[in-house]
Amino acid sequence: MSIHKNAKIGKGVSIGSYVVIEEGVIIGDYVTIGHHCIIKSGVVLKDHIIIGDMVILGQRTSSNKKMARKPSKHLGELIIEEDTIIGSQVTLYKGSKISEGVFLADYVSIREQVEVGSHSIIGRQAMIEPNTSIGSYVTIQTGSYITADTIIEDEVFIGPCCSMSNDKYMASGKGIHKGPIIRKGAKIGNNATLLPEIEIGEQAVVGAGAVVTKSIPAQEVFVGNPARKLV
Amino acid sequence: MSIHKNAKIGKGVSIGSYVVIEEGVIIGDYVTIGHHCIIKSGVVLKDHIIIGDMVILGQRTSSNKKMARKPSKHLGELIIEEDTIIGSQVTLYKGSKISEGVFLADYVSIREQVEVGSHSIIGRQAMIEPNTSIGSYVTIQTGSYITADTIIEDEVFIGPCCSMSNDKYMASGKGIHKGPIIRKGAKIGNNATLLPEIEIGEQAVVGAGAVVTKSIPAQEVFVGNPARKLV
Amino acid sequence: MSIHKNAKIGKGVSIGSYVVIEEGVIIGDYVTIGHHCIIKSGVVLKDHIIIGDMVILGQRTSSNKKMARKPSKHLGELIIEEDTIIGSQVTLYKGSKISEGVFLADYVSIREQVEVGSHSIIGRQAMIEPNTSIGSYVTIQTGSYITADTIIEDEVFIGPCCSMSNDKYMASGKGIHKGPIIRKGAKIGNNATLLPEIEIGEQAVVGAGAVVTKSIPAQEVFVGNPARKLV
Q1: Partner residue opposite C161 with nearest CB, options A2, A38, A145
Q2: Interface ipTM
Q3: Predicted pLDDT of residue B65
Q4: Labelling B203: which of A53, C17, C121, C163 has CA 20 to 30 A away?
Q5: pTM strictly above 0.90
Q6: Chain A residues with CB within 8 Å of chain C CB
């Protein structure tokens, strides 16, 4: 293990082999950390958290000269609340907050300025982009992609392999960047495609494989390409 | 290296740097293990297996309070048969069986209660959910998602980025969980979407990007959204 | 650290914990290497490169007996040019070239015989198959899949979760393997599906969720399944 002398480790903490804990990390009580994990400066872990193997916490943003979104220099900490369970091979960025009781499966990656509400589930390999809000008791299944600047309210269900985008003009430098808004309790079928700036109403349902090009009212069911009301 | 004194290692085994081998692991003869691999308790490796770098074998299931599928406490071992080749960054769960001569590419993840038949190929980043049966000489290409409770027979071909689901009511608590059945020799084009409980007949073909909402008879070709017989 | 005595390390190089550097590796000046990285034989890193954590450079190809594409024995080196930024959990194969100023995000995987042009961006989890050419100032967003034998010209934009294929007959042993050709400045929407051998003309636009079954002329906009000219 390589644990910095200024890291603060609680009582009853279990740490696997070849773990790196950098300067200033704060770890609560009864946390379990798997083998080969890397916990970087700027990470705060509360109590009773379970972390798998080969997890990276506190990743920093960077960019090359072509990139539109420049990383903020003042991201704040990565804060992970009590009773969270984190799988293996996960990467979480500095500047986000994971609420209590959340489940993050293997290979999940969450960028900066994201908040995940309590008791939500994020499936394996799901990728969450920056500046996104995810409510409580949300399910995002395996391999789904949540674009930047997105709002997902409580109790939303997103099936596997869904895709979203936030830039109508595809990097032309026109318009704003705005992802979808998915209202409380809406359900999105597997491999659905959501376009930028649309709103999916409360309890609405999007069928598997649908391509949603405009907003869907509450309670309604839309399917097809382009998605139309199911009749 | 961190190798438990009760692990059983065969002859001619090559082990990379920073490898962790936990208590009770059984490794056959002439196995090659890359750097940074983690082999957890409850793993049995037969002879002549090649394993890349940063591989996790014997991952355990877990869940949070929202999750419907609770992990079984009696999963059995992860058994990997002779001549299997495993890429890098792979995660395989305890309680599954990988048959002889299988190729698992980088970033593949296979959950518990899965059987992969002999000489099959699973492409990079493919995710296989629990309680799923995959036949022999099957190809699953890069990034495809195999949902839980699925049956894939021998010689099936699944192109890249395909998606499936197993829950018609999307976590409403209604109905059963049942993935597709894909019969012998069927072919599924890239980025196709398969709905729950459908059957793809023997030697049937699903076009790229098709959304399959009902079963397809043997030998037929279906394309479009929703998928219809190609005429 | 485990650094082979015949590796050649430049001045001002920073190396994290538990890094493995194999025989014959050449590393330029002012390179930063994160924790747990593995740099295998046959890798050449130029100056001012930044590499995240748990990165594998110089991965080798392999195959099982079912696989059509047998790995070449003479792949050459993996060459990474100046000012490249590489995220975490990335895997790059031996026999490819990454040009100056490229940004490769977390979980990117690039196979052998690929060239990535200068200042291009490849998003998280994107998978690039062998024998593929990617131009300069290209953007490939998160989770997109670039099949083998593909040509992507300069300034192309590929949204998130796009999919391509290169084998019209899906492993039947008929025909050739040929991916799409995407001409200069074309834009592909998220979760679009491209079939083998098609050409997307200069500055053409493919809508989100479109399924492109035939070539698209320059400047035109195609949407739907199958994709048709937007009118």
Answers
A1: A145
A2: 0.96
A3: 79
A4: C163
A5: yes
A6: 2, 18, 20, 36, 38, 54, 56, 59, 62-67, 89, 91, 107, 109, 125, 127, 129, 143, 145, 147, 161, 163-165, 170-171, 191, 193, 195, 211, 213, 225-226
